[in-house]
Amino acid sequence: MVEGKWIHQIPLLTFLVIILSLRDCKVVCEENSLDEISTSTPFELKHPKLLVFSLDFVIWPFRIETEVVTPVKKNKRTGRVHDFVKKALGVYADALDALNTLYLKKYRLAAISDSPDVETNTKLLLYFNLYNYFPIQEIFGGPKSQHLELIHRTTQIPYEDIFYFDVKNDQLAGLRKMGLHVVEVESGLSIQDFERALELYNNVTAVTTTEKS
pLDDT per residue over 188-201, tens digit each? Predict the structure, then answer.
């Protein structure tokens, strides 16, 4: 009878050991999972406070002074826009998609142009249904640094928190010295231009923060 008792007790002890081992393993596994979650969670992106776009060759593929014969018109029946000699005018399709995406994401948008033809620029913004994207507009002849300085003073947004999108030109080096994050665009704006700029902006911000600490 004694031998029979031990025969039944040995499996029971083994079973208890197995249960305790599994419990300890579960605790360790859960801790490891939490560690993995905490280390793999991406840091919160820093976003610019204002996005400024030059109009010529960024939003639309022309410059009014050299490629458009004013006045411009919009056909009420077709919705198409053309200049005085019936040349069709339009915007970059990718630029329109990018502006719509950024607008829906609640970014503040601004438009500038160094064209002295304020009336035609304003008409085109209205005809292309872009006017409401840009509550901030600075359109006048002169260096673009003046446009951006005026926007900076009006909004009180630091230059380092502003993205400026433009094609490659001689003014960009000076704008970078002002502290702006200048984004060079080729063949019209795309959302990829913004995404690359945002990634660079966060890398620079992270390095600056590390150096200060």
Answer: 999 999 999 999 99
pLDDT single digits (tens) 96-108: 999 999 999 999 9
CA distances from 21 to 9, 25, 40 (A): 19, 6, 28
The helix/strand/coil state of 51 is strand
- Give the span between the Cα atoms of 172 and 164, in whole angstroms: 10
| pLDDT reported for residue 36 | 43
Which tokens sit at 124?
Answer: 């085109």
Strand (E) or helix (H) holding 88: strand 88-89
Helix (H) or strand (E) holding 183: strand 181-184
Give the number of C-alpha atoms closer than 13 A to the C-alpha of residue 18, restricted to the C-beta side. Answer: 6
